[in-house]
Amino acid sequence: MQSFIDELTDKLKKPLPGAEAQYQMAHVARRTYVPAPHDARLAGVLVLFYPVGNDWNLVFIERTSGNPNDRHSGQISFPGGQYDPNDGTLEQTALREAHEEIGVPPETVTLAGALTELYIPVSNFLVHPVVGFTGSKPDFVPQADEVAAILESPFDRFLQPDTVKMTDIRVMQSVTLRNVPYFDVSGKVIWGATAMILGELRSLFL
Question: Across the chain, how many H-helices and E-strands are there?
């Protein structure tokens, strides 16, 4: 088990696959690189590994869909949110948000490194994916007003040849994206920025 964490930590110290790997999981309309503007809002998300039996699992949240101003409501994502100056660092942002959203105490998480930052034009967020792990499975406690459900998946599932699928996704009343690449976790569709982050992560092991 520890050998995987050692390998992961080592890979995160080396040059990352970056945008090329991320954009393999993006819709064709999203594959034109857009640099983050100077006024982009900073955010940190936690890519959290934890052991379950002989597997290393990842945890995701299904965001509540009650806020009409939230461009990511109802989507599956990593726990995380907007940087607060009181955080000091984006690593602390990711840890704070994971504590608030799914109840993981920051002191139980060991940081392994970070993946490539990703700009999300629709919400003007520059997302910094922070990778960490815990020595045992956390007691997840979803934040009622922000988290509709907690989803868990063995990381190995994302390495299988048939793990990437395609679907149509309705993003607005009159707009449907065709042939969007996604990952299936317990029947839920992981697409967009979260899938792009996952795409880079899985490419480290392929």
Answer: 4, 11
